[in-house]
Design goal:
This protein is 33% helix and 21% strand. It is α/β, with parallel strands linked by helices. Helix 9 (295-310) links the parallel strand 10 and strand 11. The two termini are 35 Å apart.
C-alpha cells in the first residue's frame, strides 16, 4: 500500500521524484492552481505560459510532465488538470481534486516519492486529494513479475509514497482526514484485489478464509456456514446456485460492534466467485470477466473492515453470500423449484439469474437480527448497465427518503449513482403457476424486476436499499482519474459514509 504523509516542507525544498501541481481551465487559458505558488516562482511566474505552449489546457485529468527548473529539489514537475477554475472565493470540487490526484498518481507508477501541491482549502480537500492519490496509485500485480530467472521485471510498481504539501500534520482535522483517507483507500484497494483475483484462486471457500482471517485481525466476529450447515439450515437459494460446482458455497457473517452504538446496519453482498450462467450458459464473449460477479461481497467485506478500523459508533453486520455458478450433472436446471431460507418457493426459469437467489437467502437471514436498515450490493443485472451505463449504479429501496439519502451520500463521496423505482405492476410478471414466484419476470425493466424479487425477502418493517453495481464494478476500458482497469471497489466508499452518517445520527 502506498504510504501517505503530511509534510510541512515547502514545494521548493522537499526532495522527491516528482512534484505535482494543479492547473485549471481559465477564461483566457490555463491557470496555475493554489498550492503551486513556489513552483510558479521557480518558473519566473511563467508556469501557465509554459504549460499552454506545451498544449496543456487544464482540462480534467490532463497530465503534463516537464523538467523542473533550478530552485526546486525535484527533477520533474507534473501538472494535472482540474477542469474549470472555480469562481472567486469558491473552492475546487472535491471530486475534481480526487480525480486529479488519481491521474497524477497513475502517471507516476515506478516512482518512489511524489509531493502533491494541490489546493488544500480545508480537511475535506485533504481527504479528497489523499484518497485520489492512494486510489490512483493502485495496481494489481500479484500474478506478474517475470520468470523464475528474473529476466522479466514485470510492470512498474505503484507510487510508493505520497507527501501532501499544504496540509497541517498538527491540525486534528487534517490529521483525521488523512487517516480516514488511508483506511478507506486501503479497503477499496483490497476490494479491487479480490475482484481481480482469478476464480481458480478465489473460490467461495477461499474468499471465506480471507474474510475470516481479516475479521479476526480487526476484532470483528465471524461465522461461516459451509455447505453442510447451509443444507441443514434450509438455504435453498444459496445451495441451489452452488450445487453445480465442485467448489461448494459459503455464507459468511461479519459482525462489528461498538459499545456505545445506538443503530445497526446490515450490508449484504452478492458473492458469485465465478458466473458461467449455469445450465443457462452465458453466450461466448460474456464469460471472460465473470470473476467480478463477487464485487458486491467484496464491497461489503471492505466496508465492514473499514468501519472497524475507523472505530465508528455503529454496529455493522456484513453478509457475504458466496457461491460458484457452474453447469454440471448436479446443477439446478431451468424449471426446478427451490425452497428458499424464508420458506418461499421459487421456480428457476433462468439459472443465470442466480444472484437474486443467493441474496434472497442472505436478506432473510440478515432480517432476523432486526437491523435499523439493510443495504444489499450486487453486480445483479445487465439491464442496469443498459439503463445507466458503465459508471453509474442504480439505487432501489422500500423507503424513498432512504433511497435519496444513499444517492446523496454516493454523490458526496464521488460515486455516480441514480435512484430507480420499484413499479408494483412488474411484480406480477414473476408469478409462477408452480411456485410462490419465479426468478424471472418481463425482460424490459429487468433491473427493476430483480429489485422487486429481492424486496420479497426483506423482513417486514425493515428499511432496505438495493445497489445494482453491475456497471461500475469492473472497468474494461482505459484507466481514468483514480479508476483503474479491472476491479474498481465500487460502493465501498458509499457504504462507509453511510455507516459514518448513521453513527453520528446525520442520515437526514
Amino acid at each position: 500500500m502506498t504510504a501517505l504523509t503530511l509534510s510541512t516542507a515547502g514545494a521548493a525544498t522537499l526532495r522527491a521524484d516528482a512534484l505535482v501541481v494543479g492547473v485549471a481551465k481559465g477564461p483566457k487559458g490555463p491557470v496555475v492552481a493554489a498550492g503551486a505558488e513556489a513552483v510558479d516562482k521557480a518558473f519566473d511566474g511563467k508556469l501557465a505560459a509554459v504549460l499552454e505552449a506545451l498544449g496543456a489546457s487544464g482540462a480534467e485529468g490532463e497530465v503534463t510532465k516537464l523538467p523542473a527548473p533550478a530552485g526546486l529539489k525535484v527533477p520533474v514537475v507534473l501538472a494535472v488538470g482540474l477542469g474549470s477554475a472555480p469562481e472567486q472565493d469558491e473552492s475546487f470540487d472535491e471530486e475534481a481534486l480526487r480525480r486529479a490526484a488519481g491521474a497524477a498518481a497513475r502517471a507516476l507508477h515506478g516512482a518512489k516519492k511524489a509531493a502533491f501541491a494541490l489546493p488544500l482549502d480545508d480537511a475535506s480537500a485533504v481527504t479528497a486529494v489523499a484518497e485520489g492519490a492512494l486510489l490512483g496509485a493502485y495496481a494489481f500485480t500479484a500474478y506478474q513479475g517475470g520468470d523464475k530467472k528474473g529476466k522479466n521485471s514485470g510492470p512498474k510498481q505503484p507510487l510508493a509514497e505520497v507527501a501532501l504539501l499544504g496540509a497541517k500534520p498538527r491540525d486534528k482535522e487534517h490529521k483525521a482526514a488523512a487517516e480516514r483517507a488511508s483506511v478507506v483507500a486501503t479497503e477499496v484497494n483490497i476490494a479491487r484485489d479480490l475482484v481481480n483475483t482469478p476464480p481458480n484462486d478465489l473460490t467461495p471457500e477461499a474468499f471465506a478464509a480471507v474474510a475470516s482471517a481479516t475479521a479476526k485481525e480487526n476484532g470483528i466476529k465471524v461465522q461461516v456456514l459451509d455447505e453442510k450447515a447451509l443444507l441443514k439450515g434450509g438455504y435453498g437459494g444459496i445451495m441451489g446456485v452452488g450445487k453445480g460446482s465442485e467448489n461448494p458455497p459459503r455464507l459468511v457473517k461479519l459482525s462489528y460492534t461498538h459499545a456505545k452504538a445506538e443503530k445497526t446496519l446490515a450490508f449484504v453482498g452478492k458473492g458469485i466467485t465465478y458466473d458461467s450462467g449455469g445450465i443457462s450458459l452465458k453466450p461466448a464473449g460474456h464469460n471472460e470477466t465473470m470473476k467480478c460477479d463477487m464485487a458486491g461481497a467484496a464491497a461489503v467485506f471492505a466496508a465492514v473492515v473499514a468501519a472497524a478500523k475507523l472505530g465508528l459508533q455503529v454496529n455493522v453486520t456484513g453478509w457475504l453470500a458466496l457461491a460458484e455458478n457452474m453447469p454440471s450433472g448436479s446443477a439446478t436446471k431451468p424449471g426446478d423449484v427451490l425452497r428458499m431460507y424464508s420458506g418461499k418457493t421459487v421456480e428457476v426459469l433462468n439459472t443465470d439469474a442466480e444472484g437474486r437467489l443467493v441474496l434472497g437467502d442472505a436478506l432473510t437471514k440478515a432480517s432476523e437480527d432486526n437491523p435499523d436498515a439493510i443495504v444489499d450490493v450486487a453486480t445483479l443485472t445487465g439491464a442496469m448497465v443498459l439503463a445507466l451505463g458503465d459508471r453509474t449504479f442504480g439505487i432501489m429501496a422500500n423507503d424513498d427518503a432512504f433511497r435519496t439519502s444513499i444517492h446523496e451520500i454516493a454523490e458526496e463521496v464521488g460515486e455516480a449513482s441514480w435512484p430507480m423505482p420499484l413499479p408494483e405492476d412488474l411484480r406480477k410478471t414473476m408469478d409462477s403457476p408452480t411456485a410462490d414466484m419465479a426468478n424471472m419476470g418481463v425482460r424490459m425493466g429487468g433491473g427493476l424486476v430483480a429489485g422487486l424479487f429481492l424486496q420479497e425477502f426483506v423482513g417486514e418493517g425493515i428499511t432496505w436499499a438495493h445497489l445494482d453495481i453491475a456497471g461500475p464494478a469492473f472497468h474494461e476500458g482505459a484507466p481514468y482519474g483514480y479508476t483503474p482497469k479491472g476491479g474498481t471497489g465500487s460502493a465501498v466508499r458509499t457504504l462507509v459514509r453511510l455507516a459514518e452518517r448513521t453513527a453520528t445520527g446525520d442520515l437526514g
